[in-house]
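Dear support,

I submitted the protein below through the web form. The confirmation email said the job was done, but the results page showed an empty box. After a refresh the structure appeared. I'm attaching both so you can tell me whether what I see now is the final result or a partial one.
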Amino acid sequence: MVDARILHTTAALREAILRLAAGRPVSEITVADVTRAAGINRATFYSHAVSPGSLLADVLTPELDHIRDEDSEARRAAAERGADRDELAAITRRGINAVVEHVVTHREIYVRALPDPDDGSLHRLLVEHFTLSSAIHIRELDPASRPDLLDDVAAGFVAQGFVGAIEAWLAGPRRSRKALVDTITLSFPAWWS
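What the results page shows now:
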């Protein structure tokens, strides 16, 4: 059983970093800002995180992991049923839509953190997350239709493109989520589904 104080501290840190990061770039948030907002001391902060940027990444990662887990499960179930290309494309679209919803939920954070030249923790988080997600997806492709490619290079290519699309959408004029999902979906390689 987890100590109630740890749960309280974790919740206070989560709320503090999300609130602070929604107001300014993570590179401008100090440990003192977080400890003050969370009502904890520095030693307690450092027992949970190494920096405000790493704390923010730790808070957002479980949401992204949940999306990846749901996508992988849907793909496994579809493969067992012998799903056709249209069903697999629909699964891809649902996964992309879930990521876009995550970004929209934390829009104020991503708008400030992704282009932050002084702290790339959130950019790295997304690239690493999507690289792993892409590598898993590539490994699970039907060998009969899978092209001969370098898995790590293809995964990196897809991940960087996905993050770049999110960054461009956030930096540009307000456009619909559907337009972003449509554009990302259409930008995936033909062999992806």
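Response: this is the final, complete result; the empty box was a page-load delay. DSSP finds nine helices and no strands in the chain.
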